[in-house]
Specification:
By secondary structure, the protein is mostly helical. The protein has one domain: ABC transporter involved in vitamin B12 uptake, BtuC (Orthogonal Bundle), CATH 1.10.3470. It contains 14 helices and two strands; from the N terminus they run H-H-H-H-H-H-E-E-H-H-H-H-H-H-H-H. The chain has a two-stranded antiparallel ribbon with strand order 1-2. A hairpin with a 2-residue loop joins strand 1 and strand 2. Helix 1 crosses helix 12, helix 2 runs parallel beside helix 7 and helix 4 runs antiparallel to helix 5.
């Protein structure tokens, strides 16, 4: 016998209610995935601005942007390696090499600013070529190959400086030296201002915008994403996969080297092992960027937002006198939350 009309109507209504509830839940999940990280950044800023009245001052916000500028540059390099399905662990060593090399060229060898910058960038590209050779030609897995170069160039730069940092006698704009004065031409890269904006912040903004345009609106950027998405399919489509993997590692090394130059100019010294702490912060910023606008892939704007979140957290925790050794706990929790947002679609499908 057929179902009673009233029972049929009730059944249809239940199905419609369940479908509506599922659709509503899906919309909420999509909203959280797309905007969750941005809401988290806003919530963190709001919290610190409430508990500390000095947090939202221009001076403090400028310090935050200045502090994240170097991390962002290094993280942009990590982003390129992630785009092609790799992972560059050598960026910390490249930062250290670039920092001591640029400082030594200015202090020990009295070279011009342009020479110090170009030579440091060139050495960074050479390290990128070594990474490419090991990954593409020798076919060592990315993590292991860049781990090898991390140790090798870490040892090289320590041998170059005999383990000592370069602390003073940075040349001034007129070629003289005065340890107490911190307005030389080289230090202007890290400590100067243009139109009231710190130079590192301007450099960071220009890099983020240019990389975003390159990845989004050029065929080279699209081919990088295709290479990382499915290497074999990209090869069958006629894309020179190895060439784009090489490009990614060269760009990774270039931006890490640029970050090292800015770091040397900002602190006014060539500190050995200066890049080691930046590695994990850069990696965290790049992975947090996956969840920005729900892109679930490496991207320049997301990496910048990830660096902002890390910078705001560290600045706020420092202002609250949270011990430095406890701040890594917060970094780990934040990274876990960002990755959870990135892989939210997998939860829903499961």
């Amino acid at each position: 016998m057929g179902a009673h009309p009233e029972q049929q109507l009730t059944s249809n209504a239940d199905v419609a209610d369940k479908a509506g509830a599922t659709a509503s839940k899906g919309r909420r999940g999509a909203f959280v995935q797309r905007y969750g990280s941005l809401l988290a950044i806003a919530a963190v800023i709001l919290f610190f601005s409430i508990v500390n009245e000095n947090f939202l001052t221009y001076a403090n916000l400028s310090d935050i942007l200045r502090s994240i500028s170097i991390v962002t540059l290094v993280a942009i390099g990590v982003t390129f390696s992630l785009i092609v399905g790799g992972f560059d662990l050598s960026v910390g060593s490249i930062v250290s090499v670039s920092t001591v090399l640029s400082a030594s060229l200015m202090v020990w060898y009295r070279q011009e600013l342009l020479v110090a910058v170009l030579v440091s960038l060139l050495v960074g590209l050479v390290i990128g070529l070594v990474n490419t050779f090991l990954v593409v030609k020798v076919r060592i897995p990315d993590i292991l190959a860049t781990l090898v170069t991390m140790y090798i160039f870490q040892g090289i730069h320590l041998s170059y400086t005999k383990g000592f940092s370069i602390y003073n006698n940075m040349p001034l704009a007129d070629g003289s030296t005065a340890p107490g004065i911190m307005i030389p031409s080289f230090l202007f890269i890290g400590q100067g201002k243009l139109w009231g904006i710190p130079v590192p912040v301007i450099l960071m903004g220009v890099v983020v915008i240019l990389v975003h345009l390159f990845l989004t609106y050029t065929r080279y950027g699209r081919f990088l994403y295709v290479t990382g998405g499915n290497r074999e399919a990209a090869r069958l489509s006629g894309i020179p996969v190895n060439r784009y993997r090489m490009l990614a590692y060269l760009l990774s090394a270039f931006f890490a080297s640029l970050g090292g130059i800015v770091l040397a100019a900002r602190i006014g010294t060539g500190q050995v092992m200066a890049g080691a702490p930046l590695l994990m912060d850069a990696v965290a910023a790049a992975f947090i960027g996956f969840s920005i606008f729900g892109q679930a892939k490496p991207n320049a704007f997301g990496t910048f937002c990830g660096a902002v979140l890390m910078g705001v957290l560290m600045n706020g925790l420092t202002m609250l006198n949270v011990p430095y050794y406890a701040q890594d706990i917060v970094k780990g929790v934040v990274l876990a939350g960002a990755l959870a947002l990135t892989y939210l679609p997998n939860w829903r499908r499961a």
